[in-house]
# Entry
Amino acid sequence: MLDQTTASADLRDAGERLSLDELRALQLERLQHTVRHAYDNVPTYRAKLDAAGVSPDDIRSLDDLPKLPFTTKEDLRQAYPFGMFAVPMEQVVRIHASSGTTGRPTVVGYTQEDLDHWAEVVARSLRAAGVQPGWKVHNAYGYGLFTGGLGAHSGIERLGCTVIPVSGGQTARQVQLIRDFEPDAIMCTPSYLLTIADAFEEAGLDPRETTLKVAICGAEPWTNEMRHELERRMGIDAVDIYGLSEVMGPGVGSEFASTKDGPTIWEDHFLPEIVDAETAEPVADGEMGELVFTSLTKTAFPVIRYRTRDLTRLLPGSAAPTMRRIEKITGRNDDMIILRGVNLFPTQIEEIVLAIEHLTPHFILELTKAGHMDALTVKIECMPDVGAEASKAAAAILRERVKEHIGTSVGVEVVPAGSLPRSEGKYKRVYDLRA
# Structure
Protein backbone atom coordinates (compact mmCIF):
# COMPACT_ATOMS: atom_id res chain seq x y z
CA MET A 1 0.00 0.00 0.00
CA LEU A 2 1.15 3.56 -0.68
CA ASP A 3 2.58 5.86 1.92
CA GLN A 4 -0.44 8.14 2.42
CA THR A 5 1.12 11.51 1.54
CA THR A 6 -0.20 14.27 -0.67
CA ALA A 7 1.27 15.10 -4.04
CA SER A 8 4.69 16.71 -3.73
CA ALA A 9 4.61 20.51 -3.76
CA ASP A 10 7.61 20.38 -6.12
CA LEU A 11 5.45 18.75 -8.80
CA ARG A 12 2.38 20.98 -8.58
CA ASP A 13 1.73 23.12 -11.63
CA ALA A 14 0.81 26.81 -11.62
CA GLY A 15 -2.95 26.12 -11.57
CA GLU A 16 -2.66 24.02 -8.42
CA ARG A 17 -0.75 26.81 -6.65
CA LEU A 18 -3.45 29.48 -7.12
CA SER A 19 -4.90 31.19 -4.06
CA LEU A 20 -8.69 31.22 -3.82
CA ASP A 21 -8.88 34.85 -4.98
CA GLU A 22 -6.56 34.10 -7.91
CA LEU A 23 -8.62 31.04 -8.82
CA ARG A 24 -11.93 32.94 -8.80
CA ALA A 25 -10.45 35.75 -10.94
CA LEU A 26 -9.08 33.22 -13.43
CA GLN A 27 -12.42 31.37 -13.54
CA LEU A 28 -14.29 34.59 -14.37
CA GLU A 29 -11.84 35.53 -17.10
CA ARG A 30 -12.04 32.06 -18.65
CA LEU A 31 -15.83 31.88 -18.24
CA GLN A 32 -16.30 35.16 -20.08
CA HIS A 33 -14.03 33.98 -22.88
CA THR A 34 -15.80 30.61 -23.12
CA VAL A 35 -19.28 32.13 -23.33
CA ARG A 36 -18.18 34.63 -25.99
CA HIS A 37 -16.36 31.93 -27.97
CA ALA A 38 -19.37 29.58 -27.86
CA TYR A 39 -21.84 32.35 -28.75
CA ASP A 40 -19.79 33.53 -31.74
CA ASN A 41 -19.00 30.09 -33.16
CA VAL A 42 -21.71 27.56 -32.19
CA PRO A 43 -25.21 28.16 -33.62
CA THR A 44 -26.83 26.07 -30.87
CA TYR A 45 -25.37 28.29 -28.14
CA ARG A 46 -26.20 31.49 -29.99
CA ALA A 47 -29.83 30.38 -30.32
CA LYS A 48 -30.06 29.25 -26.68
CA LEU A 49 -28.57 32.48 -25.28
CA ASP A 50 -30.72 34.64 -27.54
CA ALA A 51 -33.84 32.72 -26.49
CA ALA A 52 -32.89 33.26 -22.82
CA GLY A 53 -32.30 36.94 -23.43
CA VAL A 54 -28.68 36.66 -22.32
CA SER A 55 -25.66 38.23 -23.97
CA PRO A 56 -22.05 37.22 -23.32
CA ASP A 57 -21.56 40.77 -22.03
CA ASP A 58 -24.06 40.02 -19.23
CA ILE A 59 -21.55 37.71 -17.52
CA ARG A 60 -19.78 40.16 -15.20
CA SER A 61 -19.20 37.88 -12.20
CA LEU A 62 -19.34 34.19 -11.32
CA ASP A 63 -22.71 34.90 -9.71
CA ASP A 64 -24.08 35.48 -13.23
CA LEU A 65 -23.54 31.83 -14.19
CA PRO A 66 -27.18 30.80 -13.48
CA LYS A 67 -28.33 33.30 -16.13
CA LEU A 68 -26.93 30.98 -18.80
CA PRO A 69 -29.14 28.20 -20.24
CA PHE A 70 -28.32 24.55 -19.64
CA THR A 71 -26.83 22.21 -22.22
CA THR A 72 -28.14 18.62 -22.31
CA LYS A 73 -27.09 15.43 -24.01
CA GLU A 74 -30.08 15.86 -26.32
CA ASP A 75 -28.64 19.21 -27.50
CA LEU A 76 -25.43 17.40 -28.44
CA ARG A 77 -27.31 14.63 -30.22
CA GLN A 78 -29.39 17.12 -32.19
CA ALA A 79 -26.15 18.72 -33.42
CA TYR A 80 -24.70 15.35 -34.53
CA PRO A 81 -22.03 14.95 -35.70
CA PHE A 82 -20.05 18.21 -35.65
CA GLY A 83 -22.61 20.95 -35.03
CA MET A 84 -21.25 21.80 -31.55
CA PHE A 85 -17.68 22.33 -32.73
CA ALA A 86 -16.50 25.91 -32.21
CA VAL A 87 -13.48 25.83 -34.53
CA PRO A 88 -13.01 24.88 -38.20
CA MET A 89 -12.45 21.16 -38.76
CA GLU A 90 -8.86 21.71 -39.85
CA GLN A 91 -8.10 22.78 -36.26
CA VAL A 92 -9.63 19.61 -34.79
CA VAL A 93 -6.84 17.08 -34.27
CA ARG A 94 -8.89 14.34 -32.59
CA ILE A 95 -12.52 13.20 -32.38
CA HIS A 96 -14.06 11.02 -29.68
CA ALA A 97 -17.64 9.83 -29.27
CA SER A 98 -19.88 8.07 -26.76
CA SER A 99 -21.16 4.56 -27.46
CA GLY A 100 -24.56 5.82 -28.61
CA THR A 101 -26.35 2.80 -27.12
CA THR A 102 -29.43 4.87 -26.24
CA GLY A 103 -29.52 7.02 -29.38
CA ARG A 104 -27.13 9.01 -31.51
CA PRO A 105 -23.65 9.16 -30.00
CA THR A 106 -22.38 12.44 -28.62
CA VAL A 107 -19.36 13.54 -30.64
CA VAL A 108 -16.59 15.68 -29.12
CA GLY A 109 -13.56 17.30 -30.72
CA TYR A 110 -10.19 18.54 -29.48
CA THR A 111 -7.64 21.04 -30.70
CA GLN A 112 -3.98 20.45 -29.88
CA GLU A 113 -4.33 22.96 -27.03
CA ASP A 114 -7.31 20.96 -25.71
CA LEU A 115 -5.24 17.77 -25.75
CA ASP A 116 -2.45 19.54 -23.88
CA HIS A 117 -4.88 20.69 -21.17
CA TRP A 118 -6.35 17.18 -21.00
CA ALA A 119 -2.92 15.61 -20.50
CA GLU A 120 -2.22 18.19 -17.79
CA VAL A 121 -5.33 17.41 -15.72
CA VAL A 122 -4.87 13.64 -16.06
CA ALA A 123 -1.26 14.01 -14.91
CA ARG A 124 -2.54 16.02 -11.92
CA SER A 125 -5.02 13.27 -11.19
CA LEU A 126 -2.33 10.61 -11.25
CA ARG A 127 -0.11 12.65 -8.94
CA ALA A 128 -3.03 13.05 -6.55
CA ALA A 129 -3.50 9.28 -6.59
CA GLY A 130 0.12 8.82 -5.56
CA VAL A 131 1.59 7.87 -8.93
CA GLN A 132 5.20 9.02 -9.30
CA PRO A 133 7.27 9.90 -12.37
CA GLY A 134 9.18 6.88 -13.59
CA TRP A 135 6.47 4.38 -12.65
CA LYS A 136 5.00 1.90 -15.10
CA VAL A 137 1.23 2.28 -15.54
CA HIS A 138 -0.91 -0.56 -16.94
CA ASN A 139 -3.69 1.22 -18.87
CA ALA A 140 -6.70 -1.11 -19.22
CA TYR A 141 -9.20 1.57 -20.24
CA GLY A 142 -10.57 0.95 -23.72
CA TYR A 143 -8.80 2.64 -26.62
CA GLY A 144 -10.79 4.01 -29.57
CA LEU A 145 -13.70 6.44 -29.68
CA PHE A 146 -14.19 6.03 -25.90
CA THR A 147 -12.19 8.79 -24.19
CA GLY A 148 -10.80 6.58 -21.43
CA GLY A 149 -7.84 4.85 -23.05
CA LEU A 150 -6.23 7.68 -25.00
CA GLY A 151 -7.10 10.30 -22.38
CA ALA A 152 -5.38 8.29 -19.65
CA HIS A 153 -2.49 7.45 -22.00
CA SER A 154 -1.54 11.09 -22.61
CA GLY A 155 -1.68 11.96 -18.92
CA ILE A 156 0.52 8.99 -17.98
CA GLU A 157 3.15 10.16 -20.45
CA ARG A 158 2.81 13.81 -19.35
CA LEU A 159 3.60 12.82 -15.75
CA GLY A 160 6.79 11.12 -16.92
CA CYS A 161 5.62 7.53 -16.49
CA THR A 162 5.87 4.53 -18.79
CA VAL A 163 2.48 3.63 -20.26
CA ILE A 164 1.56 0.02 -20.97
CA PRO A 165 -1.34 0.48 -23.47
CA VAL A 166 -3.17 -2.81 -22.96
CA SER A 167 -6.77 -1.54 -23.46
CA GLY A 168 -9.71 -3.60 -22.16
CA GLY A 169 -10.59 -7.26 -22.61
CA GLN A 170 -8.44 -10.39 -22.98
CA THR A 171 -8.35 -10.74 -19.22
CA ALA A 172 -6.02 -13.74 -19.10
CA ARG A 173 -3.50 -11.69 -21.08
CA GLN A 174 -3.93 -8.79 -18.67
CA VAL A 175 -2.98 -11.11 -15.81
CA GLN A 176 0.08 -12.36 -17.68
CA LEU A 177 1.27 -8.86 -18.57
CA ILE A 178 0.83 -7.62 -14.99
CA ARG A 179 3.03 -10.51 -13.86
CA ASP A 180 5.61 -10.06 -16.62
CA PHE A 181 5.83 -6.26 -16.97
CA GLU A 182 5.50 -5.55 -13.22
CA PRO A 183 3.57 -2.26 -13.41
CA ASP A 184 3.30 0.02 -10.38
CA ALA A 185 -0.23 1.27 -11.10
CA ILE A 186 -3.28 0.26 -13.10
CA MET A 187 -6.06 2.34 -14.67
CA CYS A 188 -9.42 0.68 -15.46
CA THR A 189 -13.04 0.59 -14.37
CA PRO A 190 -13.64 -0.78 -10.87
CA SER A 191 -15.81 -3.60 -12.22
CA TYR A 192 -13.03 -4.66 -14.59
CA LEU A 193 -10.46 -4.60 -11.80
CA LEU A 194 -12.72 -7.01 -9.94
CA THR A 195 -12.71 -9.24 -13.05
CA ILE A 196 -8.91 -9.12 -13.11
CA ALA A 197 -8.75 -10.08 -9.42
CA ASP A 198 -11.06 -13.03 -10.14
CA ALA A 199 -8.85 -14.09 -13.06
CA PHE A 200 -5.75 -14.12 -10.84
CA GLU A 201 -7.48 -16.35 -8.31
CA GLU A 202 -8.92 -18.66 -10.98
CA ALA A 203 -5.36 -19.13 -12.26
CA GLY A 204 -4.22 -20.11 -8.77
CA LEU A 205 -2.39 -16.81 -8.24
CA ASP A 206 -2.64 -14.38 -5.34
CA PRO A 207 -3.61 -10.92 -6.69
CA ARG A 208 -2.04 -9.37 -3.58
CA GLU A 209 1.42 -10.50 -4.71
CA THR A 210 1.70 -8.28 -7.80
CA THR A 211 3.84 -5.15 -8.05
CA LEU A 212 0.72 -2.95 -8.23
CA LYS A 213 0.53 -0.24 -5.59
CA VAL A 214 -2.45 1.84 -6.73
CA ALA A 215 -5.50 1.54 -8.98
CA ILE A 216 -7.03 4.64 -10.54
CA CYS A 217 -10.61 3.62 -11.27
CA GLY A 218 -13.49 5.48 -12.88
CA ALA A 219 -15.99 5.60 -15.77
CA GLU A 220 -18.79 4.06 -13.67
CA PRO A 221 -20.35 4.71 -10.24
CA TRP A 222 -18.82 2.61 -7.45
CA THR A 223 -19.10 2.55 -3.70
CA ASN A 224 -16.61 2.77 -0.87
CA GLU A 225 -17.55 -0.83 -0.10
CA MET A 226 -16.29 -1.79 -3.57
CA ARG A 227 -13.13 0.22 -2.90
CA HIS A 228 -12.52 -1.76 0.31
CA GLU A 229 -13.15 -5.05 -1.51
CA LEU A 230 -10.64 -4.21 -4.25
CA GLU A 231 -8.05 -3.00 -1.74
CA ARG A 232 -8.48 -6.13 0.38
CA ARG A 233 -8.21 -8.53 -2.52
CA MET A 234 -5.36 -6.82 -4.38
CA GLY A 235 -3.32 -5.15 -1.63
CA ILE A 236 -3.49 -1.73 -3.30
CA ASP A 237 -4.92 1.74 -2.85
CA ALA A 238 -8.00 2.24 -5.04
CA VAL A 239 -8.59 5.88 -5.99
CA ASP A 240 -11.53 7.42 -7.86
CA ILE A 241 -10.90 9.44 -11.04
CA TYR A 242 -13.85 11.40 -12.42
CA GLY A 243 -14.64 12.52 -15.94
CA LEU A 244 -17.05 12.33 -18.84
CA SER A 245 -16.48 12.71 -22.54
CA GLU A 246 -18.80 15.68 -23.01
CA VAL A 247 -16.79 17.75 -20.53
CA MET A 248 -13.32 16.40 -21.42
CA GLY A 249 -12.86 12.73 -20.56
CA PRO A 250 -11.08 11.22 -17.54
CA GLY A 251 -9.30 13.78 -15.40
CA VAL A 252 -12.02 16.33 -14.68
CA GLY A 253 -11.24 15.49 -11.06
CA SER A 254 -9.54 12.90 -8.91
CA GLU A 255 -9.33 11.71 -5.35
CA PHE A 256 -6.12 12.11 -3.40
CA ALA A 257 -4.71 8.86 -2.05
CA SER A 258 -4.03 10.72 1.20
CA THR A 259 -7.72 11.38 1.86
CA LYS A 260 -9.93 9.21 -0.40
CA ASP A 261 -12.77 11.61 0.34
CA GLY A 262 -14.18 12.26 -3.12
CA PRO A 263 -12.65 13.66 -6.31
CA THR A 264 -11.16 17.14 -6.25
CA ILE A 265 -12.44 19.05 -9.28
CA TRP A 266 -9.71 20.88 -11.20
CA GLU A 267 -11.57 24.17 -11.01
CA ASP A 268 -9.18 26.19 -13.13
CA HIS A 269 -10.43 24.12 -16.10
CA PHE A 270 -13.97 23.10 -15.09
CA LEU A 271 -16.54 25.20 -13.23
CA PRO A 272 -18.92 22.94 -11.23
CA GLU A 273 -22.44 23.61 -9.94
CA ILE A 274 -25.09 21.54 -8.22
CA VAL A 275 -28.74 22.02 -9.21
CA ASP A 276 -31.93 20.44 -7.97
CA ALA A 277 -32.47 17.44 -10.25
CA GLU A 278 -36.20 18.16 -10.57
CA THR A 279 -36.42 21.97 -10.67
CA ALA A 280 -32.93 22.69 -12.09
CA GLU A 281 -32.57 25.50 -9.54
CA PRO A 282 -29.05 25.95 -8.10
CA VAL A 283 -28.52 24.60 -4.60
CA ALA A 284 -25.89 25.54 -2.02
CA ASP A 285 -22.59 23.71 -1.62
CA GLY A 286 -23.12 20.70 0.60
CA GLU A 287 -26.63 19.95 -0.71
CA MET A 288 -27.35 16.90 -2.85
CA GLY A 289 -28.32 17.43 -6.48
CA GLU A 290 -27.27 17.04 -10.10
CA LEU A 291 -23.74 17.95 -11.12
CA VAL A 292 -23.44 20.61 -13.85
CA PHE A 293 -20.23 21.69 -15.59
CA THR A 294 -19.07 24.64 -17.63
CA SER A 295 -15.73 24.15 -19.38
CA LEU A 296 -13.22 26.96 -18.99
CA THR A 297 -10.36 26.05 -21.33
CA LYS A 298 -11.89 23.95 -24.12
CA THR A 299 -11.58 25.46 -27.58
CA ALA A 300 -12.96 22.92 -30.06
CA PHE A 301 -15.93 21.82 -27.96
CA PRO A 302 -16.86 24.23 -25.16
CA VAL A 303 -19.77 23.27 -22.92
CA ILE A 304 -21.94 25.69 -20.96
CA ARG A 305 -23.82 24.41 -17.90
CA TYR A 306 -23.82 20.81 -19.11
CA ARG A 307 -26.17 18.59 -17.10
CA THR A 308 -24.21 15.44 -16.33
CA ARG A 309 -27.07 13.47 -14.67
CA ASP A 310 -24.59 12.52 -11.93
CA LEU A 311 -25.95 12.95 -8.40
CA THR A 312 -23.59 14.30 -5.77
CA ARG A 313 -22.79 17.35 -3.63
CA LEU A 314 -20.01 19.96 -3.68
CA LEU A 315 -17.75 19.92 -0.63
CA PRO A 316 -14.87 22.11 0.58
CA GLY A 317 -11.41 21.23 -0.65
CA SER A 318 -9.23 19.08 1.59
CA ALA A 319 -5.95 17.92 0.06
CA ALA A 320 -6.18 20.81 -2.45
CA PRO A 321 -7.89 23.46 -0.30
CA THR A 322 -8.71 26.07 -2.96
CA MET A 323 -10.50 23.57 -5.22
CA ARG A 324 -13.75 21.95 -4.18
CA ARG A 325 -14.47 18.24 -4.04
CA ILE A 326 -17.51 16.28 -5.08
CA GLU A 327 -18.84 13.49 -2.93
CA LYS A 328 -18.10 10.11 -4.48
CA ILE A 329 -20.73 9.55 -7.15
CA THR A 330 -22.76 6.43 -6.53
CA GLY A 331 -25.81 7.19 -8.67
CA ARG A 332 -27.02 8.83 -11.86
CA ASN A 333 -30.47 9.96 -12.86
CA ASP A 334 -30.11 7.60 -15.83
CA ASP A 335 -29.41 4.61 -13.53
CA MET A 336 -32.26 5.23 -11.13
CA ILE A 337 -34.92 2.51 -10.96
CA ILE A 338 -38.33 3.55 -9.68
CA LEU A 339 -39.80 0.42 -8.17
CA ARG A 340 -43.30 0.75 -6.73
CA GLY A 341 -42.66 4.40 -5.95
CA VAL A 342 -39.22 3.88 -4.39
CA ASN A 343 -36.05 5.26 -6.00
CA LEU A 344 -33.31 2.63 -6.14
CA PHE A 345 -29.76 2.73 -7.51
CA PRO A 346 -27.57 -0.29 -8.38
CA THR A 347 -24.86 1.03 -6.06
CA GLN A 348 -27.27 0.71 -3.12
CA ILE A 349 -27.51 -3.01 -3.84
CA GLU A 350 -23.71 -3.19 -4.21
CA GLU A 351 -23.25 -1.61 -0.80
CA ILE A 352 -25.56 -4.15 0.85
CA VAL A 353 -24.17 -7.16 -1.02
CA LEU A 354 -20.57 -6.53 -0.01
CA ALA A 355 -21.50 -6.82 3.68
CA ILE A 356 -23.11 -10.28 3.34
CA GLU A 357 -21.11 -13.46 3.81
CA HIS A 358 -21.07 -16.00 0.95
CA LEU A 359 -22.20 -13.49 -1.72
CA THR A 360 -19.87 -11.97 -4.36
CA PRO A 361 -19.99 -8.47 -5.90
CA HIS A 362 -21.05 -10.08 -9.21
CA PHE A 363 -24.75 -9.33 -9.67
CA ILE A 364 -27.23 -8.04 -12.22
CA LEU A 365 -30.68 -6.52 -11.79
CA GLU A 366 -33.57 -7.78 -13.92
CA LEU A 367 -36.72 -5.66 -14.21
CA THR A 368 -39.86 -7.56 -15.17
CA LYS A 369 -43.62 -7.05 -15.09
CA ALA A 370 -45.72 -9.01 -12.59
CA GLY A 371 -49.29 -8.27 -13.65
CA HIS A 372 -49.62 -4.50 -13.42
CA MET A 373 -46.65 -4.17 -11.07
CA ASP A 374 -42.96 -3.85 -11.80
CA ALA A 375 -40.74 -6.46 -10.17
CA LEU A 376 -36.99 -6.50 -9.62
CA THR A 377 -34.85 -9.62 -9.24
CA VAL A 378 -31.27 -9.51 -8.02
CA LYS A 379 -29.33 -12.31 -9.72
CA ILE A 380 -26.14 -12.75 -7.73
CA GLU A 381 -23.29 -15.23 -7.59
CA CYS A 382 -22.39 -17.05 -4.40
CA MET A 383 -18.83 -17.81 -3.40
CA PRO A 384 -17.37 -21.04 -4.79
CA ASP A 385 -18.04 -24.17 -2.72
CA VAL A 386 -20.88 -22.57 -0.77
CA GLY A 387 -23.60 -25.10 0.02
CA ALA A 388 -27.28 -24.79 -0.84
CA GLU A 389 -28.38 -23.95 2.69
CA ALA A 390 -25.78 -21.20 3.12
CA SER A 391 -26.74 -19.73 -0.28
CA LYS A 392 -30.41 -19.75 0.67
CA ALA A 393 -29.67 -18.04 3.98
CA ALA A 394 -27.55 -15.36 2.26
CA ALA A 395 -30.37 -14.69 -0.23
CA ALA A 396 -32.83 -14.23 2.63
CA ILE A 397 -30.49 -11.75 4.34
CA LEU A 398 -30.14 -9.78 1.10
CA ARG A 399 -33.93 -9.59 0.67
CA GLU A 400 -34.37 -8.43 4.26
CA ARG A 401 -31.65 -5.77 4.09
CA VAL A 402 -32.91 -4.34 0.79
CA LYS A 403 -36.38 -4.05 2.32
CA GLU A 404 -34.95 -2.49 5.48
CA HIS A 405 -32.49 -0.04 3.93
CA ILE A 406 -34.18 0.85 0.62
CA GLY A 407 -37.83 0.32 1.48
CA THR A 408 -38.99 -2.01 -1.28
CA SER A 409 -39.17 -5.76 -1.85
CA VAL A 410 -37.00 -7.51 -4.44
CA GLY A 411 -36.55 -11.08 -5.53
CA VAL A 412 -33.14 -12.69 -5.06
CA GLU A 413 -31.81 -15.53 -7.20
CA VAL A 414 -28.44 -16.94 -6.15
CA VAL A 415 -26.58 -18.43 -9.12
CA PRO A 416 -23.36 -20.48 -9.27
CA ALA A 417 -19.99 -18.74 -9.19
CA GLY A 418 -18.81 -17.73 -12.66
CA SER A 419 -22.25 -17.90 -14.31
CA LEU A 420 -22.87 -14.16 -14.80
CA PRO A 421 -21.12 -12.04 -17.46
CA ARG A 422 -17.87 -10.38 -16.46
CA SER A 423 -16.94 -6.75 -17.01
CA GLU A 424 -14.44 -5.94 -19.74
CA GLY A 425 -14.95 -2.19 -19.34
CA LYS A 426 -18.14 -0.51 -18.21
CA TYR A 427 -20.37 -3.13 -16.61
CA LYS A 428 -24.06 -3.45 -17.47
CA ARG A 429 -25.97 -3.94 -14.22
CA VAL A 430 -29.60 -3.37 -15.21
CA TYR A 431 -31.57 -5.48 -17.71
CA ASP A 432 -35.04 -4.14 -18.41
CA LEU A 433 -37.15 -7.11 -19.55
CA ARG A 434 -40.51 -5.39 -19.12
CA ALA A 435 -41.03 -4.87 -22.87
